[in-house]
Design a protein that fits this description.
Elements lengths: L1 E5 L3 H12 L3 E5 L11 E4 L1 H9 L3 H7 L5 E6 L5 E6 L1 H7 L4 E4 H12 L4 E2 L4 E6 L4 E5 L4 E4 L1 E4 L6 H7 L5 E14 L9 E7 L2 E8 L3 E9 L11 H8 L5 H9 L6 E8 L6 E2 L2 E3 L14 H18 L4 H30 L4 H13 L3 H12 L5
Parallel strand pairs: 1-2, 1-11, 2-7, 4-13, 11-18
Antiparallel strand pairs: 3-6, 4-5, 8-9, 9-10, 12-15, 12-16, 13-14, 14-15, 17-18
Helix pairs in contact: 1-5, 1-9, 2-9, 4-12, 9-10
Keywords: FAD, Flavoprotein, Monooxygenase, NAD, Oxidoreductase, Purine metabolism
Protein name: FAD-dependent urate hydroxylase
InterPro entries: FAD-bd, FAD-dep_Monooxygenase_BioMet, FAD/NAD-bd_sf, HpxO
């Protein structure tokens, strides 16, 4: 069966690999001419890693993953550790170590596994037609392709989603700006095997180890949308936003390279339950655009890919029926995680100052068990346990 996938991100590539593994002919179309992942790195929690393991990528992802043994929250202003704990109980409970990874390295790994020869870059979808027996995708350059079904993994601004919903849903600004990038590991910034997050004033600064002796870092600052984005001012802006914060935060600001640092205004989309129409279905951010506050965006896309392949392989009443079954297996879980991330976002970034202060107070009493319980609940409700 011929499958067309629109989008060569984490979700589209994972779906392509999964569908090839069960014998389908798959072609991926991506509008950009050069793959430049949005964000320097991604924390792939154990449910996402299990999906990659299922796709036969266990050794490859372990090679590019950072070794994460512990987690800590630090008072951003005083530098005092509020709570710190081992992640071993989490790993033993869920049965798989998480791996923070470079987005570029993860995407390249997936592209190579799928097959570079079956990816068309610089090919933007402009229209699609489903005649009930096949789907035809038409591209901006005048070319087209036809398959038995089409999967829209074309991200937050999905064109395929408009076909399914009949309109483009509004993206909601989450209220904060994120700067992220990579720096060399240095224990003057944070312990090398620990995910360290500095918090205060509704802001966050986080450091997470990835392969290659590097930290993935990010800064979150509640700000209005639409402010100027000038790389030359990143260091001075961050220095001002984090004035009075502990020395490691200012060392990090000094060491970041503005030319390789990303700045992203964070958005999400209200959850919706219709992901399939005829022989067309959504996957990944096109189906459930979320804030990154619980680290499940990429993991959900990988889960979508695995469930889609299993559903197509095990249901034989037709493609339309299988796609609705895929939708119904995924949409409630995705809805729950999008709303859970939104709730965490509001607490973390001081939408309600009293709620954020209560969270800071709670962190000082936390022994790690409560945080691990929350992370485990995100992981264990996934399709692979």
């Amino acid at each position: 069966m011929k499958v067309i996938i629109i989008g060569a991100g984490i979700g589209g590539l994972s779906a392509g690999i999964a569908l090839k593994r069960i014998g389908h002919e798959v072609r991926i179309y991506e509008q950009v001419r050069e793959i430049r992942p949005v964000g320097a790195a991604i924390s792939v929690w154990s449910n996402g890693i299990k999906c990659l393991n299922y796709l036969g990528l266990e050794k490859q992802v372990a090679k590019i993953g950072g070794w994460l043994d512990a987690m800590a929250y630090v008072d951003g202003l005083s530098g005092e550790t509020m709570t710190g704990f081992s992640l071993r109980p989490l790993i033993e409970q869920v049965g798989q170590r998480p791996y923070p990874v470079s987005r570029a390295e993860l995407q390249l790994m997936l592209m190579r596994e799928f097959g570079l020869e079956d990816i068309s870059l610089g090919t933007k979808l402009v229209d699609l037609e489903d005649d009930g027996e096949r789907v035809t995708a038409r591209f901006e350059d005048g070319t087209s392709d036809t398959g038995a079904l089409l999967i829209g993994a074309d991200g937050a601004h999905s064109i395929v989603r408009r076909h399914i919903l009949g309109a483009a849903p509004e993206r909601r600004y989450a209220g904060y700006v994120n700067w992220n990038g990579l720096v060399a590991i240095d224990e003057a910034l944070a312990p090398k095997g620990q995910w360290t997050t500095f918090v205060g004033e509704g802001k966050r600064v986080s450091l997470m180890p990835i392969a290659g002796n590097r930290f993935y870092f990010f800064f979150d600052v509640p700000l209005p949308s639409g402010l100027p984005n000038e790389r030359a001012h990143y260091k001075s802006l961050l220095g001002g936003y984090f004035a009075g914060w502990a020395p490691p935060v200012h060392r990090l600001i000094e060491r970041l390279d503005p030319d390789t640092t990303n700045r992203v205004e964070i958005h999400d989309i209200d959850p919706f339950m219709t992901w399939a129409k005829g022989r067309v279905a959504l996957l990944g951010d096109s189906a459930h655009n979320t804030t990154p506050d619980i680290g499940q965006g990429g993991c959900m896309a990988m889960e979508d890919a695995v469930v889609l392949a299993i559903t197509l392989q095990t249901n034989t009443l037709g493609i339309e029926d299988a796609l609705v079954r895929y939708q119904n297996r995924r949409n409630e879980r995705a809805r729950e995680l999008v709303l859970r991330a939104r709730k965490r976002c509001d607490v973390t970034h001081a939408k309600d100052i009293a709620a954020t202060q209560a969270w800071y107070d709670e962190l000082r009493r936390e022994d790690g068990s409560g945080i691990i319980r929350g992370i485990a609940s995100n992981i264990e409700s996934g399709p692979l346990g």
